[in-house]
Design brief:
By secondary structure, the chain is mainly α. The protein has 20 helices and no strands. The longest helix is centred in the first third of the chain and has 38 residues.
Length: 491
């Protein structure tokens, strides 16, 4: 079920009424059923995948806690990893590896006997798999006592607000909240609705409108040249942020109404002054997952420099593959990993240089650094968005192919026309999006967004704004042909 659908507008109020009407001891049953219904709206038969991952990690979590020897605990952990990641491998990566092998055999002039493997990628499989595994690994490490109540564990794995696109929660945070008794709180309800409204605004008004122009260029790269590619890539950077941050805000808002606090997933990522800083701000739940369960177990930074660089690169390559079974995502991860390694190599000289800067020069330095990082991130987005490596490299080769024409207003207008960039359907949402980002940047010291400021305004000002935004979202939703799927649903 999509957040931005009429079904959800009916589903969520019913869930809330039942949630606050039912006795606290029965709420988990209703929430678990609602979560399964939420997922089954997509493909009912794929609910067995969530059940499989739930049973595997619940069972092995208990076995790890009961096992007497270190070897038995390790065996249980390995089996949980193999079964959970094996399921992820079959549905997400088996076809990719098969086609890569087919291409290699063709390149070598050999016949390849295996037929094409075509499986529908289960929505959000990477999210609920990683969330389940974090629990099992924490039990193995002794950081978390095993959850004995199967129902609550199943709810932890499938809690519908963050089921298909995160944030990827940890069991020590989410499980206790699912168990606590919560009575309706007006202030939390208002805060939750504000976050949801803000998320719908980012998704429906900004991301979905911008996506049309991005798709025109990236789905037909041979029809465009430099300026079109640069505009489309910049627009995609705004689109993917508003799309994913929109989902996270809706999820956080939904949970907050029910008294549950999900972790923040974004902190003004496009104002980062380094790639390292970017990944502390973008998709925070995934970044910290890889840090805790891949980077640190590999040795983290407590190893030789060469091994540290290897660990960083391994994490980013795995992160690329996590996002998608395609070589474009591998290259995207390689770009970010290479730049992180480069930052580690020059960290000391850069730190020494920054210490010598005067306050005014430091501000200018940070602005320039943020612009450079944003440009690098946008460049990497080319590989993330492109439909294949050939398209991505074609776009990269032709980024500045028509640079001499960029000063011609007639040429710029022809590019705008070919990309179907209009005032109300693209420019206005883009202006709103940039205004929101600028506002967030101005409030970066507080770490709070637009919703937090508006909530302190007088009711006579605040509520008309809420109604105006809600009306704008409804109008944009009705005028749109179909609800656009969230980008991260495919991961």
């Amino acid at each position: 079920m999509l957040f931005n659908s009429f079904e959800f507008l009916i589903f969520f109020p019913i869930v809330l009424v039942l949630y606050f009407y039912l006795p606290a001891k029965l709420r988990w049953i209703m929430l678990l059923a609602a979560s399964y219904v939420f997922y089954m709206f997509w493909r009912p038969e794929y609910i067995v995948l969530i059940l499989f991952v739930t049973i595997v990690n619940y069972g092995f979590g208990l076995h790890i806690a009961k096992a007497q020897s270190r070897g038995a605990k390790r065996t249980s952990l390995v089996l949980a990893l193999v079964l959970s990641l094996g399921l992820l491998f079959v549905f997400k990566y088996l076809g990719f590896i098969n086609e890569s092998a087919r291409s290699l055999f063709a390149f070598l002039g050999l016949s390849y006997p295996v037929r094409t493997i075509s499986l529908v990628l289960p929505m959000g499989i990477s999210f609920f798999t990683f969330q389940s595994l974090s629990y099992t690994i924490d039990v193995y490490r002794g950081k978390k006592a095993p959850e004995k109540h199967f129902g609550y564990f199943a709810l932890y794995v499938s809690y519908f607000p963050q089921l298909v696109a995160g944030p990827i929660e940890r069991s020590e945070r989410l499980l206790p909240q699912l168990k606590k008794e919560f009575k309706f709180d007006y202030d939390k309800a208002i805060q939750g609705l504000q976050r949801m409204l803000y998320g719908f605004f980012l998704k429906i008004f900004i991301a979905d409108n911008i996506s049309k122009c991005v798709n025109i260029v990236y789905d037909n790269p041979q029809d465009f040249s430099g300026l079109g590619f640069i505009i489309a890539t910049f627009l995609f950077a705004i689109q993917i942020f508003c799309d994913f941050a929109g989902y996270s805000n809706i999820a956080i808002g939904c949970a907050k109404i029910m008294g549950i606090d999900l972790m923040e997933n974004f902190k003004q990522p496009y104002f980062a002054t380094s790639i390292k800083n970017f990944w502390k701000r973008w998709h925070i739940s995934l970044s910290t997952w890889f840090q805790d369960y891949v980077y640190f177990p590999l040795g983290g930074g407590r190893v030789t420099k060469s091994r540290k660089y290897f660990n960083i690169m391994a994490v980013f390559l795995l992160s690329g593959l996590w996002h998608g079974a395609a070589w474009t995502f591998v290259v995207w991860g390689f770009i970010h990993g290479s730049l992180r390694v480069l930052e580690e190599i020059i960290a000391k000289p850069r730190e020494n240089y920054e210490v010598r800067l005067k306050p005014r020069s430091k501000k200018a330095y940070n602005v320039v650094s943020a612009l450079i990082v944003f440009a690098i991130v946008c460049f990497a987005w080319i590989f993330f968005r492109a439909n294949g490596l050939s398209d991505a490299f074609y776009i990269v080769r032709n980024l500045f192919s028509d640079i001499r024409s960029w000063t011609s207003l007639a040429y710029i207008d022809s590019v705008r026309t070919s990309m179907l960039i209009g005032l109300k359907d693209v420019l206005l949402p883009l202006i709103f999006g940039l205004a929101v980002m600028l506002f967030v940047w101005c409030r970066r010291e507080t770490g709070k967004g637009v919703h937090s400021l508006v909530s302190r305004w007088p009711a006579v000002v605040r509520w008309p704004i809420y109604y105006a935004f809600a009306l704008l979202i409804v109008v944009m939703f009705i005028l749109g042909n179909n609800a656009e799927q969230f980008i991260y649903f495919q991961f």
